[in-house]
Amino acid sequence: MSNAVAKVLHWLRALGMVLALLLAVYVPTFGLVAALHLSMAHGVPVIILVSATLALALMLVLRRYQRTTLADFGLRWSSWRYLAIALVITVPSAAVVTALLSRVHEPGPLAGLRLAPALAWLYFGFGAPLQEELIFRGLLQTVLARNLSASGETSARNGVAAVVGAAILFALVHFAVGPWTAAVALVLGLLAGELRRRSGSVFPAVFVHVIFNLPGLFMAMR
Predict the structure, then answer these.
(1) From CA 181, how far away is CA 20, in angstroms rounded?
(2) Number of folded domains that form the chain
(3) Residue range(s) defining the domain that contains residue 151
């Protein structure tokens, strides 16, 4: 087998495992929402709670079989330096993205949802950013980076590839809302993923996600 073919197969195996994990998180979650016949408004907290719980459970399983720790999945505190960097980079980025989205008139993720303001802030200002970052930057990006490395140690090149891969998956998940929302999700995923890679923690990524969600929440609550 040539080296090029071996590399392609290695990538396919890594991507296959990440896709399997993504399905393992979301299929049971949305299956439960469908089985309970929940409206979207009532389903949001269930989706956040169940999918985050499944992601944490998968981390615990992988920790046992792959000799990793929860800290390897980014579940550790970050240096304040990275939180400051996240703030400096993300605030202007979120402002530009919000200005662009206001011109395309695409319904956002909150379109059609009827929630009390306090619940909207709780779910989308905190809950969804934490849940999605646990899944995409905590679980998927970590697993992809480790599986792209033949030695089991995450090199910088594999780490960057994992950032891009997780960001693309994140964008695809949001494509149902609209192509512009997916494009914003890609930008968010790249920023959050790179901060996750450099800091070793998911908390700067959560911070980035919260900042990106704030303009949409302000507009929805007007």
Answers:
(1) 24
(2) 1
(3) 3-220
